[in-house]
Structures are given as structure tokens and as C-alpha cells.
Amino acid sequence: MPRRVDHEERRRQLAEALWRLVRRGGVEAVSLSLVAAEAQVSKGLVQHYFKSRDQMLVFAIEYANERMRERMERRLAEVAEPASPRHVLRVMLTELLPEDEDRRTESMVGIAFFVTALNDAGLAAYFRAGYDELIQATIAQLRAAQEAGEVRADLDPHHEADILLSLVYGLNSHILLGQQKPATALAVLDYHLDRLAAETDARAVLTTNERS
């Protein structure tokens, strides 16, 4: 019997080949022919899945976002009890930090795409939409944490979401440049999250820190 082809898996393999090219030479290094060579397949096969370079680039970004969501879901599923809003928020934010090789690759590819988007209206619109989705998710978790008494009620969740994402993206760059180690960046993030804690939750954080 002929071998059954998993088309989604094939698309992912091509996206990963594209990531390797971008990591080595930036988005300018990407073409249908070069992705085919990197993936060791024919150009015709690449064109079967992607009609244009832009379509392939967008899929590569979407696949990176999908992998991040899957990692988040796995981490939250490992929690014995339903995760608190604060814990969900921390998982969301730490997934944006390049703590391992996979996330380092995704971060470097994301930065390369961002630079290209500065002069590409289509990619820029895609990035803005993605950031809007992320900021709204962060605001929602902050509000849920306020309702649960984990974050101070007097804080503006919109401003705090902007601050948190600005902090995380800055830490991301510092890790990639070797200015900070992932463990140090995580400590900085946790330090800031602790400062957002409501009084009762802050006492719990202090007690936990004193035990460690």
C-alpha cells in the first residue's frame, strides 16, 4: 500500500527548515528553493503546500505560536489542582523567554520577522494583531488574579499588562545576547510579579521565600 502522507506534519517540517534558514541568515535568506534544499525535498513539493513565500512565512510564525500554546497547555495540565490565575499568567510570560534551544530558535526567528515587518505592511499588520491578542490575554489573567485576591485591586490591568510584556521582551533580548542567564531573567520576572501581589498573597510569597 502507498505510504499515507501527513500533510500537516509535512508543513511543520518545512516551517522548521525555514526557521533554520532564518536563524542562520535572517528572513532575506528564505526562498521556496532554499527551503526545499534545507528540507531535502523538491521545490515542487514546497509549492504544493505554499503558493508563495509570504504564505510560507506566515505559516512559520503561526506554527511557532502553536508550539508555544501547546507547551503552555502541557505545563498547566501538570498542575495537580486547577491553576490559579497568577500561575497561568506566569506560565504565559515564561513561555516568551528563551530558556531552552527550541524557544531560543523561536525567539530569534520572531526577532528576524519583526525586523522585516518594519518595512513590510502585511507582516506588520500580522504582528500587531498577534500582540493585541497577547495583551488582551495578559489583561484577562491580571483581572482574574485581582478577582482571586492574588493581585492588588488598585492596579490598572491595562498598564500592568504593557509593563509585563515590555519587561519580558526586554529580558528575552538580554538572554539572547548573553547579558543575562535564563535563571536570572526568571528571578527578575518573579520579583516583579511578587510586587503586584495583594497583601494577603504577598505574605504567602514571603513565607515561601523564607522557607527556600
UniProtKB/TrEMBL annotation:
Residues 8-68 form the HTH tetR-type domain. PROSITE patterns: HTH_TETR_2. GO terms for molecular function: DNA-binding transcription factor activity; transcription cis-regulatory region binding. It comes from the Bacteria. The keyword Transcription regulation applies. Keywords: DNA-binding, Repressor, Transcription, Transcription regulation. InterPro entries: BetI_C, Homeodomain-like_sf, HTH-type_TetR-like_transc_reg, HTH_TetR, Tet_transcr_reg_TetR-rel_C_sf. It holds the Pfam family TetR_N. Residues 31-50 bind DNA. This is TetR family transcriptional regulator. It comes from Actinomadura harenae.
